[in-house]
Amino acid sequence: MSFDFHSFVFLLSVAVILLTPGPTNTLLALAGLGLGIRRALPLLAFELAGYILSISLWGILLAPIQVQFPWIATLVKVASSGYLAYTAIKVWRDARLLQTPQQRSITPRILFVATLLNPKGLLFALVIFPPHAFETLPAYALAMVPFTCLLAPIGALWISVGSALNTKRLSFIGPRKIQQISSVALGMFSALIAWTAFR
User: Fold this and answer.
1) Could you give the maximum distance between any two Cα atoms of the chain, in Å?
2) H-assigned helices in the chain
3) What Rg value do the Cα atoms of the chain yield, rounded?
4) Which residues have a Cβ under 8 Å from the Cβ of 73 and sit 6 or more positions away?
5) How many CB atoms lie within 10 A of CB 2?
6) End-to-end CA distance of the chain, in Å?
7) Over the stretch 71-95, which tens digit does the pLDDT of each residue have?
8) What is the distance between the alpha carbons of residues 46 and 178, in angstroms, rounded to a whole number?
């Protein structure tokens, strides 16, 4: 009974955090907007890779060190904030290139790095994943497999949201305006992360 309850809480927590708007989800929606669902779906592999690396580094290597050196978390947040600020500026500038031969899209590298620096990875590793998940390989797999099974459909949902914004029913908004709004959202996430870093 206890195991079932804790598993339910774990899965619910992972789903809620993955569904929450953030830098990675904003970029997935932008990818759906610019590439369409079918061409954007392979980006989910890079989202997963970014989260696995981030969660693993925090959980296996950095969590024990962070107890003695709390500034490590601050450093990661500052790096994340800086990268998101850079990405927000780039997304804003690229909005004017939409539907032109120079149009650029969300690349695997951009999504991977944004996910790697996403503070959600820190939250997953230090709060959501059980501490014993980083002690043995079977325990790690027991946490990471359901995490992966939730990430794929939730990421696809965000791509679908972005793709839906490109339909005729929502054409009054316009892809350029949506991309500019997404740029502002990324900028806000950057500022929020910077604020939490120095609280």
Assistant:
1) 58
2) 2-19, 23-35, 37-40, 43-56, 63-68, 71-95, 108-116, 119-123, 137-164, 175-197
3) 18
4) 66, 122
5) 6
6) 39
7) 877 887 788 788 878 878 877 877 6
8) 23
CA-nearest of 117, 164, 129, 118 to 20 is: 118
- C-alpha closest to that of 182 among 90, 99, 107, 46: 90
Q: Is 66 exposed, middle or buried (0-12, 13-18, 19+ CB in 10 A)?
A: middle
Backbone angles phi, psi at 125, to 5 degrees: -70, -40
Dump the DSSP string for 182-195: HHHHHHHHHHHHHH
Residue 1: what pLDDT?
A: 37
Closest CA to 18 of 117, 111, 147: 147
Helix or strand or coil: residue 96?
Answer: coil
What are the C-alpha distances in Å from 107 to residues 36, 46, 62, 133, 147?
A: 13, 10, 28, 31, 23
DSSP symbols for 123-144: HIIIIIS-GGGGTSHHHHHHHH
Is-above-0.90 flag for pTM? no
